[in-house]
Amino acid sequence: MDTVLLRLPTVVPKFGTNTPVCLPLGMAYIASTIRDLGFDVRCVDAVGEDPFKHIVLENPNFLSFGLSTPEIVEKGGKCDVIGVSLMFSHDWAVAKSIIQKIRENNPKTVIICGGEHVTAVPEFCLNDCPAIDICVLGEGEETISELMPAIQSKAPLGDIKGIVYRSGGEAISTGPRTRIAVLDDLPRPAWDLLPMENYLSNSLGYGVNPGRTVPLQVARGCPYQCTFCSSPQMWTTRWNVRDVDEVIAEMQYDIDTYGAQNFDWYDLTSIVKKDWIVDFCRKVIAKNWGITWQMPSGTRSEALDEEVLQLMYLSGQRNISYAPESGSPDTLKEIKKKISLDSMKISIKSALKVGLNVKLNLIMGFPNETKERVFETLSFVRSMALMGVHDINITCYAPYPGSEAFLGLQNEGKIAMNEEYFYALTSYTDLRHSISYSDHIGNRALTLYRLGGFIMFYSLSYLTRPIRLIKVFYNLFTGKAESRLDTALRGIFDRLFIKKFKINNV
Q1: Of 73, 106, 164, 207, which has the most beta carbons under 10 Å away?
Q2: What is the second-level CATH architecture of the domain 2-173?
Q3: How many Cβ atoms are within 10 Å of 49's Cβ, its own excluded?
């Protein structure tokens, strides 16, 4: 049974602050699982096949990264099963049109979709895109291990937990599947099935100036329940961490096989237990690899005291992102972000002291957020700039399906899941346009607050540390990146002045 796994292009605003070109870790895990079952499997990574291609969509304010629809259909060819990764809801409008084209080319193929977007709204996906046959919910490895033999033998699907499938014109849910107990029992990601060299030789990843970068998943799940986050739908709230020695062994394999120089941690919440990270750092130091590793996703600070941060630096950690989300205690309480800003400030100061490049992730425009709370966040931004934090990302709140806040807005009739809504989700990184879901703050005001926060932060940062500004201009024109700002500016510069776009070909 010939199987193709597909990673679709990703959609970004033309003036967005991110350039999401990174290896598809989830697809690599699923590919490895299917191969171990004895099935033939190929991967079509629409982003990795042509990582610098930008396609202007019908709405010229948006771009897609990666292959065009005809190229994807051609590379996929004819097959028995197609598995599509759908992690991010802002890709849905483009994704469903591509899936429909794939269906036209493969009328009898079983099309399976999985990922965070699908997990959040499986019935909607089946109804909105008739080409999809089955949605896999949450962790997919154990589910796909049962689903593939069932498809091959044409057995009933009702006993396979963790799916929603189409039957007789209806969406049938089989109920949730129990979380995978031991992550180290999973086969390692099938990087050999992906265009690895396109990523490695171009230093592509989430981190900063990383060299040959391979992703690493250390843990799954998050024990916290922030209202704006859809992670609980995908992973539940159980934090499951791998054995340190198994992580070290995987890193050694990637160094030996791919010449890995850097590891980007893809975990949502990487560090919960201090003893785990201390053990990891000491074992990496003992290896004396000379590699770096980075935590580009916003992490928490509870276990990150000066002792831990010093060990992290000595083991090769160079870039770390903290996720306070807001500088307003009232907002933090409302979004159930159970952190202490004072404790996080102590951790950030320690991170800077030991030599780490520090970035902060903040969000404005939460439902019910007032101007006074936004000003508290701006005051926090000011204090972080003066402290010496290197980078900041101020996004607007985006109501992702599956999150508690999304359900609240949907129940109030403030969200309709149409094409406009899915494109609007990309506004969280759009520098020119913000969408506010607060009754107290308009779209224009939110845009100005975000821009004001950026301008204030980097102005203070460069006035107090002018050498950083010199480095920004140098890095922009040499292609080097030492901070997230360098990476973002380079992406915008490329999109505006260097890269050639294909028009309306998706």
Answers
A1: 207
A2: 3-Layer(aba) Sandwich (3.40)
A3: 18
